[in-house]
Specification:
The chain has about 525 residues and is α/β, with parallel strands linked by helices. It has helices at about 1-10, 55-60, 75-85, 90, 110-115, 165-180, 270-275, 280-300, 300-335, 370, 400-405, 420-425, 490-510, 520-525; strands at about 25-30, 65-70, 120-125, 135-140, 150-155, 155-160, 185-190, 345-350, 375-380, 390-395, 435-440, 450-455, 460-465, 470-475. It has 2 domains: about 1-10 and about 25-200 and about 315-420, 3-Layer(aba) Sandwich (Alkaline Phosphatase, subunit A), CATH 3.40.720.10; about 435-525, Arylsulfatase, C-terminal domain. It binds 2-deoxy-6-O-sulfo-2-(sulfoamino)-alpha-D-glucopyranose (SGN) and calcium ion.
């Protein structure tokens, strides 16, 4: 509070730049793409035994880990737009990946700049257009590429050799060492493409986990018998939709003629192969050719084939995660080397969660826990207790207000989130909020997850697939994997109470952006066995 008053006072008399940089913390916001909490050791998920993230775990040991951190809309661009603005998708205008972000609107980096912060962003933005609110920026066009990526920069297109995770880390380190002006506090966003599809690891990680048997998720062979038809008619199954060549690189060559390119949106697997240097390509083949040969010899089918696909997928995904984890280590070392570690808040997060074979799936989008949850770890020396774990329900919606309060800036009244500073400094008492709100919009579209909105309390989750007029209700305490939809069988007073809460939250956030229900005919077009 005192900081906030002081900052506005000094701002008013034009003295803000004379504030010592040390008075307000620097912020390094490390953000990856599609990194599920259960693929982080510190989150204690079923992949923990693989020890996937020693550096991120170290960050957690030095700060606070949020156990119940959720996104508002489980998809890349929209999650980032929520973070930039502190407003739900229907307010910031970026509801699905097909939209463009209006950079002219109020964003937290712009507000930080106004109170004297130096700001920079490197890596994936996915918001299209020139980023605003940053003194320095270099972003990947669209999804970006894993090998030798191009960057969109104020000076035009620039290609940089190397693996994307390393290149982005190097740019961030260079900025910290050479471009930062020392008399100002700063906010640096380091935004990785990894571990986004198509999961191409760096050359040095191609053989990592070769001798490891990945633990399988308990729901790998889920048949979605007790959910609504929404869960049956998706297109994100490892079994039926994950492409063995495109996604898992089996016999992949740089030549995509003749390969099954149908439905591949950006053909990035082939584009990436084409961009590799002869050395990179040789390393790639040396790593995958023997694995491919073993696969052909094994002649797998049925569940065994699913198991093989899962192993190959999980290993590549975690190899990409390994690169991100090393980046976190490098950034922490750099802060130490520059003697910035004591006054810099380091945040690790990712745009949403992900299915790593959970429910038999990959990708995200659903309000089910694995994709609804996002990692959030905050190291704030002297403020957030080391090794602490917070169980309050928080959202990416809260980040903008949090960053502003950290910087002692005014939080504009139109922001819809709540600052997490009182949770971080331990001053908050009682429950932070009793429910979180979610709304996903991209349908019909890739992976075919219908539009839905819903709420989650500490125990229950209510989901409404409004295009189809169908509801799901889960008791997370009794059924943490959300296998049994109790909407029809639950006590009706519970259903009404949850519906009432949902209505209240929709009013609170001023959301009426859903579309009318489909006709019966249209429902049957998508879900042939739908019974009206
Ligand atoms: C691409 C991927 C999809 C993914 C979307 C959105 N296909 O289209 O699997 O869901 O991006 O991801 S791919 O063939 O191009 O890899 S997001 O994280 O950017 O929202
Ligand atoms: Ca994403």
């Amino acid at each position: 509070m005192f900081h906030k008053l002081l900052a506005s006072l000094l701002l008013a008399v034009g003295l803000i730049s004379s504030l010592q940089a040390e008075d307000r913390p620097n912020i390094v916001f490390i953000f990856s793409d599609d990194h599920a909490p259960h693929a982080i050791g510190a989150y204690n998920g079923w992949l923990k035994s693989v020890n996937p993230t020693p550096n991120i775990d170290q960050l957690a040991a030095q700060g606070m880990l949020f156990e119940n951190s959720f996104c508002t809309n489980s998809i890349c661009g929209p999650s980032r737009a929520v973070i930039q603005t502190g407003k739900h998708s229907h307010k910031n205008g970026f509801m699905n990946n097909g939209n463009s972000f209006d950079w002219n609107q109020q964003t937290f980096p712009k507000l930080l700049k106004e109170v004297g912060y130096q700001t920079a962003i490197y890596g994936k933005s996915h918001l299209k257009g020139d980023p605003q609110g940053f003194d320095d920026w270099m972003v990947l066009p669209g999804q970006g590429l894993y090998y030798n990526p191009d960057f969109h920069t104020p000076e035009g297109k620039k290609r940089i050799e190397g693996h994307c995770t390393d290149v982005v880390t190097d740019l961030a380190v260079e900025w910290l060492k050479e471009k930062r002006t020392e008399d100002k506090p700063f906010m640096l966003m380091v935004q990785h493409k990894a571990p986004h599809r198509n999961w191409m690891p760096a050359a040095r990680h191609l053989n990592l986990y070769d001798d490891v048997e990945m633990p399988e998720p308990p729901t790998l062979f889920d048949k979605w018998e007790d959910n609504t038809l929404a869960a049956k008619y998706q297109e994100l199954e490892i079994d039926n939709h994950m492409d063995i060549n495109y996604d898992l690189f089996l016999d992949l060559t740089a030549d995509f003629e003749g390969q099954n390119t149908q439905k591949r949106q950006d053909k990035s697997a082939w584009v990436n192969m084409k961009r590799m240097s002869p050395e990179q390509l040789a390393t790639w083949h040396a790593a995958y050719d023997p694995k491919d040969a073993a696969f052909h010899k094994a002649n797998l089918s049925g569940d065994d084939l699913v198991r093989w696909k899962y192993q190959r997928y999980a290993k590549n995904y975690l190899r990409c995660v390994k690169g991100v984890d090393e980046s976190v280590g490098t950034l922490m070392d750099t802060l130490k080397e520059l003697k910035l570690d004591e006054n810099t808040v380091v945040i690790y997060s990712s745009d949403q969660g992900f299915y790593i074979g959970d429910h038999g799936w990959y990708d995200k989008r659903w309000m089910y826990e694995e994709s609804f949850k996002m990692p959030l770890i905050v190291k704030w020396p002297g403020v957030a207790k080391k090794g602490s774990r917070n169980e309050e329900m928080v959202q990416n919606l809260d980040y903008a207000s949090t960053f502003l309060e950290m910087a002692g800036a005014e939080i504009p009244g139109d922001l819809q989130g709540k600052s997490l500073v009182p949770l971080l400094n331990g001053e908050h008492e009682g429950s932070f909020r009793d429910a979180v709100y979610y709304h996903y919009y991209e349908y019909p579209s890739v992976h075919m997850v219908p539009r839905h909105y819903g709420i989650r309390t500490d125990r229950y989750k209510l989901i409404y697939f409004y295009q189809f007029g169908v509801w799901e209700l889960y008791d997370l305490q009794e059924d943490p994997d959300e296998l049994t939809n109790i909407y029809e069988t639950a006590d009706q007073s519970l259903v009404s109470e949850m519906k009432e809460k949902l209505k209240d939250l929709r009013e609170h956030y001023d959301d009426n952006s859903d579309e009318p229900e489909y006709s019966l005919e249209k429902k049957k077009e998508f879900w042939p066995d739908f019974k009206g």
